[in-house]
Amino acid sequence: xxxxxxxLACLALPACGEDAPPPDDPRVLDMYDPAAAGELDRxxxxxxxxxxxDLSKPTDVRWYLYFPTKPAAQLFMGKARVAGWKAxxxxxxxxESWLCQCSREAVPSxxxxxxxxxxxxxCAVGLKPKIDGWEAAITK
Length: 140
Prior knowledge:
The protein is an alpha+beta fold. The chain has one domain: RraB-like (Alpha-Beta Plaits, 2-Layer Sandwich). 41% of the residues lie in helices and 22% in strands. The protein contains five helices and four strands; from the N terminus they run αααβαββαβ. The radius of gyration is 15 Å and the shape is globular. It starts with a helix and ends with a strand.
């Protein structure tokens, strides 16, 4: 019961500040294809289950977003932290890219992963990120 209360509190957090656009804003949805993302999410969850993960338990879910400039990545990182994410910044594979890794504990499900993606995309509006995907720890 305690875990459920924590998750409900996380869902109630404001998404990246008062001035953030709503999750159904076209600028948010332009960052990814919801149908394709949902199919990939389903595949990852199936692989987690096959590896022995208990998908009813909270686990660390880590997202990878690449930004074209360090200031854009830093601005995003600040917004993500305000929204309750752990966020770390590092240089990307090329001099023109900056990687922001964001993580949060969550019970992995299609609905929850989609909500996390929308929340991060909302934080990144106008910053031109590439949402590279997510991974999660195998919790048994």
